[in-house]
From TrEMBL:
<dbReference type="GO" id="GO:0016491">
    <property type="term" value="F:oxidoreductase activity"/>
</dbReference>
<dbReference type="InterPro" id="IPR002347">
    <property type="entry name" value="SDR_fam"/>
</dbReference>
<dbReference type="InterPro" id="IPR057326">
    <property type="entry name" value="KR_dom"/>
</dbReference>
<dbReference type="Pfam" id="PF13561">
    <property type="entry name" value="adh_short_C2"/>
</dbReference>
<feature type="domain" description="Ketoreductase">
    <location>
        <begin position="9"/>
        <end position="185"/>
    </location>
</feature>
<dbReference type="InterPro" id="IPR036291">
    <property type="entry name" value="NAD(P)-bd_dom_sf"/>
</dbReference>
<comment type="similarity">
    <text>Belongs to the short-chain dehydrogenases/reductases (SDR) family.</text>
</comment>
<keyword id="KW-0520">NAD</keyword>
<keyword id="KW-0560">Oxidoreductase</keyword>
<protein>
    <submittedName>
        <fullName>SDR family NAD(P)-dependent oxidoreductase</fullName>
        <ecNumber>1.1.1.-</ecNumber>
    </submittedName>
</protein>
């Protein structure tokens, strides 16, 4: 029996080798879905896939040809993508806009915006061709709505992701494809470990959060799973924050 005949939905999680992406991939795998994790780090993706019992696909989401090849492999080995979680993203540094290196801005824009667009385009094309509808869940950030000095470059890209979420929801609704977003505040992941290990920096973040703690990836996975489920069948174009109340402050 081929993998495509074993049941479950075909789920693609970008940036699935660690952090939020890995937690999301694990949740879908434990639910019985057929999961592929796409990551630019081939070794890390391979390790995570072996631990979770899922498919690893090496993809540079900033490159259209790499995305096309990765999505074709997922379709060949698991079937057409039915659920896409656009999780891959970077910060790549920080600093005031007046002194931020252009290279940093361009790199974050390429991964967070161009990458989200390219993978959404390829996965949605598979969904449309299959004719069974589908779901896209974009991992955004409350930074799209609440500025933090020194992170303007990153927050601008997440505002763009929110815009793509809303446009995708309108354009793909006629094909039975829903597009939603999850907007966390700070989350303790390998990407933020340096910040979280600094007591002063961590304390400053926690002081902004009414619930008083930094999120962990497991705080986000239930919402991602819900938005990808039939129970959310009438929800599209929404971007839901998971921030411990930070947007209230």
């Amino acid at each position: 029996m081929s993998t495509a005949e074993t049941g479950g939905r075909v789920v693609l999680v970008t940036g699935g080798a660690s952090g939020i992406g890995r937690a999301v991939a694990q949740a879908f795998a434990e639910a019985g879905d057929r999961v592929a994790i796409a990551d630019v780090d081939e070794a890390a993706a391979g390790r995570a896939a072996a631990e979770l019992g899922v498919l690893a696909v090496t993809v540079d989401i900033t490159d259209a040809e790499s995305v096309a090849a990765g999505l074709a492999r997922v379709a060949d080995e698991l079937g057409p993508v039915e659920i896409l979680v656009n999780n891959a993203g970077i910060v790549a540094g920080g600093g005031p806009l007046v002194s931020l290196p252009v290279e940093v801005f361009d790199r974050v824009l390429a991964v967070n915006v161009r990458g989200t667009f390219l993978v959404t385009r390829a996965a949605a094309a598979q969904m449309i061709e299959a004719g069974r509808g589908g779901c896209v869940v974009n991992i955004s950030s409350i930074g799209a709505r609440q500025p933090t000095p020194g992170l303007g470059h990153y927050e601008a890209t997440k505002a763009a992701v929110d815009a793509l979420t809303r446009t995708g929801a309108i354009e793909l609704a006629g094909h039975g494809i829903r597009v939603n977003g999850v907007a966390p505040g700070p989350v303790h992941t390998p990407m933020t470990a340096g910040l979280m290990d600094d007591p002063q920096a961590r304390g400053a973040w926690e002081a902004r959060i009414p619930l008083g703690r930094i999120a962990v990836p497991g705080d986000l996975t239930p919402l991602v799973m819900f938005l990808a489920s039939p129970q959310a069948g009438h929800i599209t174009g929404a971007v839901v924050q998971v921030d411990g109340g930070q947007l209230l402050t």
